[in-house]
Amino acid sequence: MSTLPIPASSGFAAFQLQASLQAAIDALGFHSPTPVQEQVIPQALAGKDLLVSSQTGSGKTAAFLIPLLQRLLSSRNSAMRLPSGPSILVLSPTRELAQQVADDAIDLLKGSRGVRVATVVGGLPYGKQLQALRGADLVVATPGRLLDLYRTRKIRLDQVVHVVVDEADRMLDLGFAEDLQAIALASAQREQTLMFSATFAPRIMQLAEKLTKDPIRIAITALNQPKPDISELIHLADHESHRIKLLEHYLSDSSVDQAVIFARTQVECEQLGEKLTAQGLSVTYLHGALPQSVRTRRLNAFREKRVQWLVATDVAARGLDVPSISHVINLGLPMKPEDYVHRIGRTARAGRSGVAVTMVEVSDMRKLRAIERVIERRLENSVIPGLEPKVRPLVRNAGKPSTRPPSRSRPQSFGQSDREFPRTERPAIAKPRSEGWQDRSSVAKPRRLESAETRSQPSRGSGFAGFASKPGSRSDASPRAGQSRWAGKRVNSRA
What we know:
Order of helices and strands: HHEHEHEHEHEHHEHEEHEHEHEEHEHHH
Radius of gyration: 32 Å
Largest sheet: 7 strands, parallel
Number of strands: 13
Mean pLDDT: 81
Strand order of the largest sheet: 3-4-2-5-6-1-7
Structural class: alpha/beta
Low-confidence stretches: 2-9, 397-495
């Protein structure tokens, strides 16, 4: 991998974009590029392969759309032709992220004629997607549905010039590694590959070696760097009802413009969404088991501010770009600590500030420590007057789990440590050996002798009958119960 010097820029005009593309950027209110856009756009315009690590909400979607659309518009102006397949292919891990990227591309192409954008995702009818693919120059797709269409010869990939792999780390988490390699083989003639990932983990580097050629590595911000425009609040919850009371406090907060409530499971997501709707709140819920048409309709309602609250699983942790989201509320911590950063990244977008609230119960402490190790800082506890936890806060090292595990024999409540029990006042751990273990063994020995005597008694039948001669078994109920079914048939046949 190589690194090239990045020229200083003074706004998007320094990139010398097409007039229609520059007008669309101005209409969207983008006056100056973000740091990731400053570094990615010049290198992408030069045709370099890139491996980019950037935090969520940094403007990476425009960072790869602007240069690729610029190259597409330039090539179409020089040689007009009817494409037989897309020239730009953007791969996204989820349907929501794919739709968001497609919408951003359409916004950037509002002043350009003759350029078509198509979305290929699972959960939607094939007919509409096949119709949209006709003459499409840019295709945004999830890997599974794209391979289905390619293997049935519904789409050609031999005309692809630029490939973008967005959220590569999430792709691997969802098991798309083999699909990505198959797509890369089908588009082997491509000239440029751009990969975006939250981290440069070893598995990402292995994938980059297979998909890119001497990529330039660009790291803007890491997951452990906090965003100063997000206020992160940690509320300790005693139990489930306490957690719901904390949520009700924010449901009645007038400072909430729009908010995303992340539930732990799909069942909790549906139950909470229906409960809040029954209370008269403007709520919708979203999870991966819903049909794609329903998911799209509910996301559009949230984007258009027709609903205020969105209850969702981690399916909305990436790809949800709604600037009016002022709060993110985590009812439970995610399974992967990295997803915490993506969750709270739904707020404080487009230059705004936001609040990220997380409810933590005693069972969540290991997940909280894992999150603190990833972000390399401690998340401070916050208390709402009148909703203080009854247990004392657990003493936590900044991002480091306790090296001494709690004793299994001594009951330890939330917030208690070994130092809270004086040596003379510590509760009894177990009975002495003379009181517990010897009594237990003295009771067990007669049982073994009794079972041995029972087994030594002659059985009344043959075959499997010996297993039925124990007291209380079927042998007490019938004179022939001691005989097995097969033994009984053999005696009858002799008679």
